[in-house]
Amino acid sequence: MEPTPNGLYGAPPPENPSTNGDYRPRPTTPDNITVVKSGVVQTKDEMARREENSWDPVVRVYNRRWVMLLLFCLVSMSNAFQWIQYSVVSNVVKDFYDVSQMAVDWFSMVYMLTYIPLILPGTWLLDHSGLRLIGVLAASLNCAGAWLKYTGARPDLFPVAMGGQAVAAVAQVFILGMPAHVAATWFGAEQVSTACAIGVFGNQFGVAIGFVIPPLIVKPHEDDEVVEKGMKTMFLITALVTTFLLILILLFYKERPPRPPSRAQLEGQREKEGKSFLDSIWALTTNFNFVLLLISYGINVGSYYAIGTLLNQIVLSEYPDAEVEVGIIGLTLVLSGIMGSVVTGLWLDKTRIYRGTCITVYILSLTGMALFTGSMSLNQLWIVGAVAAFLGFFMTGYLPLGFEFAAELTYPESEGTSSGLLNASAQAFGIPFTILVGMVISNQGALYGNLILTGSLFIGSIITACIKADLRRQRAERNESTVEDSKEAETPDNPNRGITEEPAVVTKDERKHEAEYDKLNNDGSETGGENSGSSGHPNESCVELDDLEL
User: Fold this and answer.
1) pLDDT at residue 44 in the model
2) From CA 547, how far away is CA 550, in angstroms rounded?
3) Does residue 405 have a pLDDT over 90?
4) End-to-end CA distance of the chain, in Å?
């Protein structure tokens, strides 16, 4: 077959009366040649190689994004389970290891303490090494910590158990700040807030399981051997699950999609080129709105950490022998929080109202904390559970909201960096809140401890109201266009629906081929027809590569 004058194989078909004289040249190609919409030709091997190795300026979202999000959620869930599994049975752990209540509380607070000094190197590693290395590190440390805790499930091995918890706490450094980063790396503008909320959902679901399972397996008993058997069973299950997740991460977790999912992600990558990590930290810490969010977020989430750590002590101080009920109340607190996370994510994707949503959710968190404080003296556990559901819905719903608001305020800085600083603030507030409220509960009762948290949330509400809505990321997304893996079906009104119209960088020769191809198309369309001017291949996307010699 001889090439036509425009450099493409094939020739225009004879005029067919059934088409009303309207036809287009439909080039035929060898097996390894693909002709794209604008007339540029490329090999399939080159397409695959460019798809795999380049960050193409044409934005696109991929179906595999849901697999990446699911894998992250599972690892985050298992790590969150390990955080709370000691605290929810703190009275049993205290007697089993024969240590003080404060020593048991450090099983939770070691997560907070470890995070603060490691967040900056962890964030630097995330920015410079990417999601895959961070995912592998997190899953590996999570698995190692679980096996160490299984080994330390003996009355004389408290240091080993605490060491295992510390290793799992280091894994948390790589996990807590990732929801916003995973969402921005894999999801388009219309789904990024929802994806971030789902990422937070995974962590909260792990906390929910952590409130329920330990009281069912590890029960109070005078015989340490019975307690040891229950603890070994719980930690063995945890270790096996984390090992399985590590294998999945090694096999399937990817660095990033071949192309950016949004215009904001693309522009953010360009603007961050040549910018050092310290420059990014300086830009964040000198952003006044972000600093206000940093403080208010730390107060809210730090209060949540204190409640989760001390829930056993808070409830048992008023309702002795209610260990199982503590787990149910904790489950209610977290499950309602999961719903709150998803609802706020969907709401943000739909409305893009960040400041107003933050203020509303914060004030409702304050209201829930005040009601929780008052409900403890009513001698009705079901009321405590109902109020805990209200509190959890808004307090936990603030987690993804804070991540996304921070990403808006600090764009184009890395979402991992802003999320990491938010989490560091939460840990910094969580440690003193936990220690102070725990001491007050032991000496004065749960009422005064809860009042401290209520007052703190009141201050946080005032700070939140002072934040201005400087939505920088939205401004970068206004002209965004995305493409799904599974293209939408073309319609008579829009035959090019689902096609990426913005080309990649092209060469002069490619532009010449394209102009000749368009000229031939225009010449063919002069014969008339109601479809005149439309492309003969509406489903072929425009991906332009280097010159190909036919």
Assistant:
1) 56
2) 10
3) no
4) 12
Token code pair at residue 160 = 């080993």
pLDDT mean over 176-200? 78
Residue-level pLDDT at 244:
95
Distances (CA, A) of 214 to 234, 279, 396: 7, 44, 22
DSSP H helical ranges for 176-191: 178-186
CB 403 within 8 A of CB 357: no
For the chain, the residue count is 550
pLDDT over threshold 90, residue 201: no
Cα(178)–Cα(277) distance, integer angstroms: 17
pTM, full prediction:
0.61
Q: Distance between CA atoms of 443 and 293, rounded to whole angstroms?
A: 33
SS3 336: helix
Residue whose tokens read 């997304």 = 477
**Model confidence band, residue 55 (pLDDT cutoffs 50, 70, 90):** very low
Q: Cis omega before residue 3 (within 30°)? A: no
Cβ-Cβ contacts under 8 Å for 322 (sequence gap 6 or more): 315, 316, 381
Of 166-170, 324-328, 388-392, 534-538, the poorest mean pLDDT is in: 534-538
- For residue 37, give the amino acid letter: K
Distance (Å, whole) CA 277 – CA 254: 23
Which of these, 74, 77, 58, 54, lies nearest to 66 by C-alpha position? 74
SS (H, E, C) 106-145: HHHHHHHHHHHHHHHHHHHHHHHHCHHHHHHHHHHHHHHH
Of 254, 291, 255, 211, the closest CA to residue 467 belongs to 291
Gap between the Cα atoms of 170 and 247, Å rounded: 19
Q: How far is CA 87 from its chain centroid?
A: 26
Tokens representing residue 371 in the block: 């009601």
How far apart (Å, rounded) are the C-alpha atoms in residues 216 and 218?
A: 6
Our separate counts of H helices and E strands in the chain read 19, 2
Q: Which two tokens stand for residue 280?
A: 């990014």
